[in-house]
Amino acid sequence: MPTFELPASYRQTWLYTAVDGGPSTVIVPPIALRFVGALDTGRLQDALTALAQRHEVLRTWLRRTEQGTVVQVVHEPGALKLARSELPVLDDDGALAGVAEDAAAPFVLDNAPLVRAQLYRLDARDHLLCLTLHHAITDAASNALLTRDLLAFYRGDRLPALPVQFADFAAAERTASFSVAERYWAGRLEGVRPAELPGSRRSDVYLPLRQVLPDLDPTRVAALRALARTQASPVPAVLAAALVVALGQPTTGPTVVGVTVANRDRPQLRDVVGYVADQMPLVVDTAAAGDFAELVGQSGAALTEALDHPLPSGRLPWPGGPPHGPLFPINVNYLAAQTVTAPTRLGELAVLPVDLPAPPPTPTPAWPGAPTLDLVAHDHTGRLTGHLLANAAALGAAAVTRTAVRLAAVLDTAGSAPHTTLDTLYQRTEPPT
Questions:
Q1: Which pTM value belongs to this model?
Q2: Which of 164, 184, 367, 373 could bridge 14 with an S-S bond, Cβ 3.0-4.6 Å?
Q3: Distance from C-alpha of 283 to C-alpha of 353, rounded to nearest angstrom
Q4: Residues near 84 by Cβ (< 8 Å), separated by ≥ 6?
Q5: Is residue 114 within 8 Å of 133, Cβ to Cβ?
Q6: Which residue, 148, 124, 128, 151, is CA-closest to 37?
Q7: Which residues make Cβ contacts (< 8 Å) with residue 301, sequence separation at least 6?
Q8: How far is CA 95 from CA 98, 101, 102, 339, in A?
C-alpha cells in the first residue's frame, strides 16, 4: 500500500499525536441525508463504492513510521460498507440525538477506513443516511463535495477521474517554497499577540461546548453584508472584528485571530476531498480604529493582504516559536453558501439534508489546531446562522454564554449603526452582571 506525507499545515499530525493513533472522536458534523420515496439501497451501495474509488482519502488511514513521522496509507479501491439498522421514528429530538450519538463513535486513526456509512430505515419509503468522517480526512468543503458526488453516482452519472488527490496536494505543499510568505509573516507577527479570552486557563483536555447564537434580524444581516461591501471586506473580517470587540475592552492594541480558510483557490484543488482547509492569522487592531466600520475596513484589508501571502500554519514564523497552547485561541470559521446542502430531488426521490444535534460532549486530548473559542458561521445566502464552539475545560460555560450574548449585541448594533465608536459599542453591549 502506498504511503504519503501529510500537508505542511501539520494539522493531521496534531490530530494523530493527540491520541498516538488510538481512538479519536475529532469528527466534523456528519453528512445526514433523508431520502423520502423509493430508495434503491443496492444503487446507494454502488454509489458509495464509486465514491470511495474516486476519493482516495476514503481509503486512507494514518500511521507513525519507525522514524517517528506520521504518514498517510492509501488502500486499494474496494466497497465502502453500508451498515443498516431500523429507526422507528425520526421527527423527535430523542431519535436525532441517538443518530448523533452513533455518529460520534470514535475512530482508530491507524485502522482504515476513517469513514462510516449508516443507513437507517424508518419505513419502506423513508430512510436516513449518515456518513461520518474523521476530521483527519475531511473538512466542510470536502463534505459538500462528497454529498454532490454521492448523489451524482446514485443518478448514474459518470464522473471523470480526478487529476489531483489529497496526497498530491500534501506532497506539493511539502515541497513548495514559501520564502516570500515567510518573510512577510515574520514582519507581520512581530509585536502582536494572540487574542485573549478573559478567564481562560490552559488545559490538556478538550471538552467541546456548543452555544448557538441568537438569530439576527434579516435586515441586520443585509446591513452587515452591505457594510462588508462598502468597506471592501470579506464577511469573515466583519465577524472577526465583531468577535474581538465582544471579547473585551476595544483599545488593547493589535491582536491575532485565526481565520479558517478553505485553501482551494487553485482550480485543481476544487474537487479534492481531504483536510485541505487551514488556519491563517488575521491581525485586528482595535486601537487604530475609531468606529466599527473603520475596524471592519482595516480588518478586511489585513485579511486580503494575508490571503495574498498564503503560508501553511505549520510554517508560520512565530516570534519566540509556536504557541504552547492552541495555535489560535480565538478563531473564525466562515462556511460559505456552497458548503450548505440544499434539498434536492433524484427523480421521484426527495433528498433532504438533516441537521443532527451535537452529541454529548466527550473529553479528548487537546491539540494545537483546536481553538479555545471558535465562531462558526453558516452562510445560507439570505440568512446567517452560527454558534460558538468552545473548550469547556479551558473556558467556563458562563463565559461562553456571555460572549455569545455580547457578540449578538455587537452584530445587531453594528448592523444598524456601523459608525458607532468602539468605546460606545463596548458599553452598549456590556451584559448585565
A1: 0.90
A2: 367
A3: 36
A4: 41, 118, 119, 120, 121
A5: yes
A6: 124
A7: 232, 233
A8: 5, 10, 11, 25
